[in-house]
Amino acid sequence: MSAPTFLSVRGIRKSFGSVKVLHGVDLDLPAGSVTALLGENGAGKSTFVRILAGDHHADEGNIEIDGAPISFRSVAQSREAGIRLIAQEIADAPTLSVAENITLGAVPNRLGFVDYGAMRSIAQRALDSLGADLQLDAPVSSLRLGERQIVEIARATAGASRCLIFDEPTAALSDAETKRLFALIERMRSRGVAILYITHRLDEVFAIADRVCVLRDGRVSLDAKVAEVDQTAVVTAMVGRAVASHQDHHVYAETGAARLVEVRGLTSDSFFNIDVDVAPGEIVGIYGKVGSGVPELAGAIFGAVPHASGDILVDGKPVIFRHPSEAIAQGFGFLPADRASEGLLRPRSVAENLAAPSWRRLARGAFVSRRIETSAFGRWHKTLKVRSRPDGAERIATLSGGNQQKVLLGRWLEAGSKLLLLVEPTRGVDVGARQEIYQVLRDLARQGHGILIASSDYEDITEAATRAIVMVRGQMVAHLPQNEISTARLTEAAGGGAHA
Amino acid sequence: MPENVQATSAVPATTIRARMKAPEWGALLIFLLAEIVFFTINSPYFLSWPNIVNIITALSITGILAAGGTILLIAGQFDLSVGSGTAFVALMFAIAAQSLGIMPAVGVAVLVGVGIGMLNGFLVTVVGVNALITTLGTLAIFRGLTLSIGGASSVRITGFDWAIARPFLDIPLSAVLFLVIAVGIAVLLSRTVFGRTIYAIGANENAARLVGIRTKKTLFLGFVISGVCMAITGLVSASQLGSTSGTTGTGLELAVVTAIILGGTSLKGGTGSMFGTVLGLLIVGVLNNGMTLMNINSTWQQVAAGTLLILAVSFDQIRQRFIRA
Fold this sequence. Notes:
The complex is a heterodimer of chains A (500) and B (325).
Chain A: E1 5-16, E2 19-30, E3 33-38, H1 45-52, E4 60-65, E5 68-70, H2 75-80, E6 83-86, H3 98-102, E7 109-110, E8 113-114, H4 116-129, H5 145-158, E9 163-167, H6 175-190, E10 194-198, H7 202-208, E11 211-216, E12 219-225, H8 231-239, E13 261-267, E14 274-278, E15 283-287, H9 294-302, E16 309-314, E17 317-319, H10 324-329, E18 332-335, H11 339-343, H12 350-355, H13 359-362, H14 370-381, H15 401-414, E19 419-423, H16 431-446, E20 450-455, H17 458-464, E21 467-472, E22 475-481, H18 487-498
Parallel strand pairs in A: 3-10, 3-11, 6-9, 9-10, 15-20, 15-21, 18-19, 19-20
Antiparallel strand pairs in A: 1-2, 1-4, 4-5, 7-8, 11-12, 13-14, 13-16, 16-17, 21-22
Helix pairs in contact in A: 4-5, 14-15
Chain B: H1 2-9, H2 16-42, H3 49-74, H4 82-100, H5 102-127, H6 131-150, E1 155-156, H7 173-191, H8 193-203, H9 205-210, H10 215-241, E2 243-244, H11 252-262, H12 274-293, H13 298-323
Antiparallel strand pairs in B: 1-2
Helix pairs in contact in B: 1-7, 1-12, 2-12, 3-7, 3-8, 3-10, 3-11, 3-12, 4-5, 4-6, 4-10, 5-6, 5-10, 7-8, 8-10, 11-12, 11-13, 12-13
């Protein structure tokens, strides 16, 4: 590689208390090159990039920029060196305008007075380079998640940065937005910017990266040119063993059993006239990108968000859920899209999180003991392969994303739900745990559960679903039987409608 | 009796979560013991049974209100109206007692307390006003009502001195009542479905709703329990003083919140315990009592309690920074 190295990292170590997160990380970021950084949750990716961004301080190790040693003691120092981090969690100022957010931290001013003209032109230029059409004066709280992510990216790219670090930027973006982001990354690369791109998605690595670097257990387990590796090598480096690929497809055979739910003409602000059934043993995958109304549909079936018209039928009779507890009583279980804000009881124990919907049933009179919760957790701990203490006594916040997700799934198994409504079941879940979740879902379907997966990740559909529905802008645009489900068919159906 | 509360809360001591928490309680316990040792050395009277009873008796009103307050703060809510609520209940009781007699007046007091709790609960859960603002408003309203209806002078209450009776071990009934309520709330929080739902709502109200918890109903009930506590403290205060006035219960809301936070309940909700609150109450109570015995002016006790609160919370912040991975 002839490009000069912008940033060079040697022997970075970092511990939090007694927990060692990084055990000596070496990495070079060449100018004008995209390096993809992968690793399972807990591998130390976020800690590593926060050290580069000056947010954390390494316990040991050296950082060199342009060959000169440097030590970041603050975020400001890292920014001064030209490094910008686009973090995974959106950290904007919701009440401020788009223009103010883009120039946050570098407000153009004359003698300390804000230069609003310059602010608007800087913001407009940054948005133009992303091909984004947003109102400069709109408060960012009025934007949807993907648009807020665009504002964050615009802020990072507005200044003269020399190194951009993206931490899973596409999770909230639509297909079109992702394409424009990739085009921007291409332009930045040709301008000589060093780019570090963190992702869970292997297809993105092969689409935009020049080099791929994998972190496992706080060490670099793979550092190679993308052209020289294949998917299997990357996955093996991530999980430390070969991952069994999905040979075990569950095939749904019509049993004639009564449908667990029939949805007829369901309509709201986000989706129109939806018909969908789920029978025992079936895994119905509903695929749609951001803005398709797919997560809202799943929420409406559960009674978590209201719908305007249409019917939900259980045992052939229409039911109206005014509160999730009424859906739960009908045997429905719901895995929300956003684990942190809608799923987890973070300060509480793993066992308590699992038992939550079942407290009333498990109680002796009005009393629930920790012992009852522990035995409830014990019933599912092995089935779900949750990596935690066998009694589930630790706080759920200490588990990795995949294990948290398994516990949230276990909630509904303990509650005896027959119909599982799962929204983005593998979002923020690493490769190994992802396969385990798919396996659990197939097993559950075989045991007679009906499952509805609402997802913007086609892998969820291709791996688990026994039939698929594609939605675009709130409308169903395609029905695919199992033998026709493929990445190509899904993206084609989802993309075709959007540009129609 | 603290032993009793400890027994109900000692169950999780076998868990990692509790082991991570142990230093927090441990630090509070060590601080309490240090206070006790210090005051024992400085005052021979300090560790006598009558003084121990004094300490607990002085805590009883704050403690009963803190029991209801602990439920609310764990659920991520606040009740700042407890002090003026206590005064309003006591005044309504005194007025009703003059015309209706003692027993019907007790009924009136309970209704008034429950009514204040329902008003707070309605505003927070149905109308959707933030709890801090709601109860700041009702704090002002009921203090103002107490002053307007009761006037400047105090209202005398006769034939209602049960709270100062000492039927056994020389402990006044007000202190006994506090201990019973503390144990009751400790069990409610740590052992019942209602307690679990309170923690769940405080941890994540959204998630709690999606696992089928009737979050609004539960929070409403939490405010009503706080109202019942006001009814009880209004009656205890009326009985202890034999009168009530416009300044009864002034500043109680701060003493209550101080004790709960000192006891380790997070402002963010989802964590904390009644045992912690009792420790917080004792730390402030012992400090005030000891300083009085050492003839330190009571104005300095406020300075000490405020400093203690900030130190305790700072210590906890620093500790969490070390634990967090």
